[in-house]
Specification:
- With 332 residues, this protein is an alpha+beta fold.
- Helix content is 31%, strand content 29%.
- The chain folds into 2 domains: 7-178, Thiolase/Chalcone synthase (Peroxisomal Thiolase, Chain A, domain 1, 3-Layer(aba) Sandwich), CATH 3.40.47; 179-187 and 219-279 and 291-329, Thiolase/Chalcone synthase (Peroxisomal Thiolase, Chain A, domain 1), CATH 3.40.47.
- It has helices at residues 24-27, 35-42, 56-71, 95-102, 118-131, 155-158, 222-243, 261-271, 282-285, 292-302; strands spanning 7-16, 21-23, 46-48, 80-84, 108-112, 137-145, 163-173, 178-185, 193-194, 197-205, 208-215, 219-220, 253-256, 311-318, 322-329.
- The mean pLDDT is 97.
- The structure holds oxa(dethia)-CoA (UT7).
- Oxa(dethia)-CoA (UT7) binds at residues 33, 37-38, 41-42, 116, 155-156, 159, 193, 222-223, 225-226, 229, 259-260, 263, 287, 318.
Length: 332
């Protein structure tokens, strides 16, 4: 426990997305939809989609490398890699392949699955390892390639999602920049949003049968997930603010999981946060699941909007159901 009692700081960020983009108009050649419907109901204009040679590991490694570079550390100084994803290249986990790809030879690496809440859950997980003095340098990546699992015949879901990755470096720091958090789960509502495994019985021996099958495309009850998000997200942000002993006025940036512009607007309205403080890039990327928060953070930092010391209220929500919020200050 050499470093016991230290705080955390987010000192670098990075992101990546597949080169290929598909506009709403192009999607209307795939399913019966229109740019007008998608843009007005969701705010999405286009999404980046991975082709068959694109891997989750490539996207994640690229984002992680940029974050490490911005933080000014070497890959072999990384102690822990957390890969928040629901779409690994390998069900055994893809974090170790990311570790190899970025040359983080000293790091332990594992996957963390909490769907669109994965980044916020990962941030809190990383903070526990640092605050307890176990690790000093953590790379947290949110990455998803949901295009692999979308039903491209289902216009209610396929227009929403895109592929991408975002990453941050979280380091031990004298001042603790994670000011408060709250994480929640509700498995009773699991059926609202699924990428579920379906099993078929296969006889193995006379008195022994096993189940084998495949994961099925994403199913979602959009209206229920919408209602859940606009109710639970403001609540969980208020709880995290309470734990940070801060009021809504202290928030410089509202950084929500990029699912739907109407959800972003409604949450901001409920919290009385002006729209200039709401970070939004879903017009360009759609919903990239675990990647959406770090991807939007990376753009906002690199474009000069988010500055050192700014207070950010980040909130993820999605399948599980899971939701959570973290209040942190950017930089050391
Ligand atoms: O990261 C996971 C989190 N997921 C979310 O946050 C998703 C939350 N939910 C939503 O964002 C919204 O519910 C959606 C964008 C998914 C749907 O918007 P909505 O305003 O709730 O639309 P709706 O499901 O009530 O559908 C309205 C109409 C329906 O037609 P009828 O029954 O009124 O004739 C749909 O069939 O729009 C139709 N529709 C479409 N039309 C054109 C549904 N999808 C499409 C489409 N293009 N892509």
């Amino acid at each position: 426990m050499e470093y016991s009692g230290v705080g955390i700081a987010i000192t670098g960020c990075g992101s990546s997305a597949p080169n290929s983009t598909v506009t709403n108009d192009q999607l209307s050649q795939v399913v019966e939809t229109s740019d007008e419907w998608i843009a007005s109901r969701t705010g999405i204009r286009q999404r980046h989609l991975s082709d068959s040679s694109g891997t989750l590991v490539d996207l994640a490694a690229k984002a992680a490398k940029s974050a490490i570079e911005m933080a000014g550390i070497e890959p072999d100084q990384v102690d822990l890699i957390l890969l928040a994803t629901s779409t690994p290249d390998d069900l055994f986990g893809s974090a170790c392949q990311v570790q190899a790809a970025i040359g983080a030879s000293q790091a332990v690496a594992f996957d963390l699955t909490a769907a669109c809440s994965g980044f916020v859950f990962g941030l809190v997980t990383a903070a526990q390892y640092i605050r307890t003095g176990v690790y000093r340098n953590v790379v947290l990546i949110g990455a998803d390639v949901l295009s692999r699992w979308v039903d491209w015949n289902d216009r209610r879901t396929c227009v929403l999602f895109g592929d991408g990755a975002g990453a941050v470096v979280i380091q031990a720091n004298e001042r603790d920049r994670l000011l408060g958090f709250e994480l929640r789960s509700d498995g009773t509502q699991n059926r609202c949003l699924n990428l579920a495994y379906a099993s078929t019985a296969k006889p193995l021996l006379e008195d022994c049968e096993i189940g084998q099958g495949n994961f099925q495309p994403i199913t979602m009850n959009g209206q229920e997930v919408y209602r859940f998000a606009v109710k639970r997200v403001p609540e969980v942000i208020e709880k995290a603010l309470f734990r940070a002993n801060l009021g809504v006025d202290a928030i410089d940036w509202l950084l929500l999981h990029q699912a739907n512009q109407r959800i972003l607007d409604s949450v901001a309205d409920r919290l009385k946060i002006p729209s200039e403080k709401v970070i939004s890039n879903l017009a360009k990327y759609g919903n990239t699941s675990a990647a959406s928060i770090p991807l939007a953070l990376d753009e906002a930092v690199r474009e000069g909007f988010v500055k050192t010391g700014d207070t950010i209220a980040a909130s993820g929500f999605g399948a599980g159901l899971t939701w959570g919020a973290a209040i942190f200050q950017w930089g050391r």
